Amino acid sequence: MSRIYFFPKSDTKLNPFANPYTFNFEKSLLKKHTIVNRSTNKNGILEFFKYLFSSDIFLFNWIENTTRYRNAKIKVIIFFLFLLLAKILKKKIVWILHNKRPHDFKINHLTNFMYWLLMKYSDLIITHSLSGIDFAKSNYSKYSIKVKYLIHPVQEIIPAIADLQKKYDILIWGDIHPYKGIVEFLKYLKDSNKSEIFKILIVGKCADDEYKKNLNQYLSEYIIHLDDSYELGDISRLANQASYILFTYKSESVLSSGSLMDSIRMGSNIIGPNIGAFKDISSYGFIRTYNNYDEIIKILRDKKYDMKSNHLKIQNFCFENNWDTFIGKFNKELNRICQ
Questions:
Q1: Whole-angstrom Cα distance, residue 207 to residue 90?
Q2: CATH superfamily of 168-320
């Protein structure tokens, strides 16, 4: 049993729209470990120093996003000092590498330095995509041996409503950001005279007014946008009314996707870009990937797709890659670095 400082903490009971990944991760860790920080981090990086003597392991998710916020340079320097002190005190650093780079953010020297710090000073780096290992080998070959691939864990399957009529060809869901490439896909449909061939439902809050303006120009009776946040149960019911869930991610920063794993739980037929976890999991046979938009159209027109066989493959995948399985593999990696 280890004493772990876990960052960041979230609680889906208090906020149903909070990222469930960290909540489920912490819950799973508690079966064999102690989480020393009981409340949400309110003091940023400075709080890490507070737990230096009461923690054996510091486990970080998305800590690299520090470079996106105000006073980033000062925060990175403080984090550097923390890492130096943590190593002197023989604390273990575990970093979950979710993305190659922060999404929708111009890469600069500070971001590169932050990634270098995490690669150098982490004792264990977990990635949920084989592309994460390739990324480390290409950019940080000296430290790539620390990077281990574990499939993104998935929760239990969400029961589907049987024989629900399909109202939509495509469902695109989740908070809307430029890196997700939705506007570019809609532009492709319009430019190729395909805007009225498929019925598309887009569900998700768009906080970027300029991007929302660009999105709205493509809406019609065939392309509908529900500009709000919805709980996963509501998304699942909408997914049951769609032939496919489509991911239009265009960013090279993408490695894994929590939305992808939730879409798998819904028993949905999924189309995604041939990158990261989409590419990895396509080998299981229930995700279809594309390299260009023309290939999406070919998939949508393919009427020979065996959807019943799909459901069996999804059930097996969810059983083999649940949180208990993931945490068992994760604990083995922790034991290895703590010996």
A1: 43
A2: Glycogen Phosphorylase B; (3.40.50.2000)
Over residues 25-41, the pLDDT tens digits come to: 999 999 999 999 988 88
Phi/psi of residue 310, nearest 5 degrees = -55, -45
Look at residues 69, 87, 80 and name the one whose alpha carbon lies nearest to residue 118: 80
Question: In whole angstroms, how far apart are CA 333 and each of 61, 211, 280, 323, 326?
Answer: 17, 42, 21, 15, 11
Counting DSSP H helices and E strands in the chain, the numbers are 13, 12
Q: Do 267 and 193 meet the contact criterion of CB atoms below 8 Å apart? A: no
* Highest CATH level, class, for 3-150: alpha beta
Closest to 154 measured CA to CA, from 50, 290, 37, 284: 284
| Domain residue limits, the chain | 3-150, 168-320
User: How far, in Å, CA of 164 to CA of 166, rounded?
Assistant: 6
* CA-based nearest residue to 37, from 9, 65, 66, 79: 9
Distance CA 19, CA 7 (A): 12
Chain segment 189-238, per-residue pLDDT in tens: 999 999 999 999 999 999 999 999 999 999 999 999 999 999 999 999 99
Report if pTM > 0.85: yes
Rounded to whole angstroms, how far apart are CA atoms 288 and 70? 40
Please state whether 257 falls in left (phi above 0), alpha (psi between -120 and 50) or beta: beta
What secondary structure does DSSP assign to 209-272, as a single string? HHHHHHHHTT-SSSEEEE-S---HHHHHHHHTTEEEEE-----TTB---HHHHHHHHTT--EEE
